[in-house]
Amino acid sequence: MKSKKENLLLDSDKSFKALLEIIESVPSRKRTISIETQERDKNFRDIIMHLYEWHTMLERWYREGMDGDVPFMPAPGYKWRTIKLLNMQIWENYQDVTLNQAIKKLKLSHERVMELIRLHTNEEIMTKKYYKWTKTSNLYSYFAANTFNHYNWAIKKCEVIASSIKEGEKQEFVK
């Protein structure tokens, strides 16, 4: 039987690969298209940079927490109840990034987070309050939220964008 740590690594890699496959299923010349939607994220880049920024926040929490500090979560100037504002700020911060840059950044941050997971034993990952900075929680909840759980959210968003772009292609073909 696999440990929770092994499953975390496997599930994260599997979801990450599935996310990239959805983007790659769209012809490269069409991958930067933004769709008409009321939602914050209108293209693949928006979603990829959202994931990237949450990885970097997780890395900061981890680094500060492991250094014995109490990390400010989710980010300086924001509370969990103002997460919508934080996510909007993230969206605004990355509007000048290309999709290719975004994918490169996300691949690197994904690998860094996976490496953090690998550094720990299953016990360290699963035991609540093992580290003071995780408060009543465990490392698993932080890692899972910022890897496969977040990737599964992103997969759903990217599927909508991909199908919208492909639908647009069909309509162009009919014209």
From TrEMBL:
It comes from the Bacteria. Coiled coil: none annotated. Pfam families: DUF1706. This is ClbS/DfsB family four-helix bundle protein. It comes from Shouchella clausii (strain KSM-K16).
